[in-house]
Prior knowledge:
By secondary structure, the chain is of the alpha+beta class. The chain has helices at 2-23, 26-42, 45-48, 52-63, 69-77, 86-109, 169-203, and strands spanning 115-118, 129-137, 144-153, 156-164, 167-168. The protein contains seven helices and five strands, in the order ααααααβββββα.
Amino acid sequence: MIKRLLVLLSVAGLLMAGAARAQEAPDALIQKVSTDVIESVKADKGIQGGDTSKINALVDSKVMPYVDFQRMTSAAVGRFWRQATPDQQKRLQDEFKTLLVRTYAGALTQIRDQSVQLRPARYSPSDTEVIVRTEVRGGRGDPIQLDYRLEKLAEGWKIYDVNVLGVWLVAQYQSSFSQEINSGGVDGLINKLAERNKGAAASAPSKS
């Protein structure tokens, strides 16, 4: 009876946590995720030094649970996504994720005293897609514009696009991805991404 009660309590706790997350406002979610990432970087000298394995672990634990990465990848690939096999879609997501982590790893290593400030916004309870606008403040220079597109799913709000300094991430890659697919098909794009990722990994400084 005790074991059964513990199982029931555990299931109830998970359901309550899921329900709380589903009801969380999108701007509150962005504030929480941003603060978690910044505080994690500040506390880890390895991430500040560019340790790719630690950066990947940080992204997987603190960011990816709140990202609809399939939608992000499919939007970047465009109409060709529906032509890809399930295996090709998975490989596209894997290589695209690696590319993005390596692309923005440099920004993570520069975090020291930065903080994220939400910009004013209004949301309706019936909204299923919103844009949360923020500014990254601190360090040197002017505040950095960082905005997020989110969609409301059954399990809560999920990020599917990011705007850095006025450029949306998905749109940034759509044109080059389309050119690669027109030239070499879906496998051609996958191979190109894998090649870029391997090249970036080979040129990265080794960690002792």
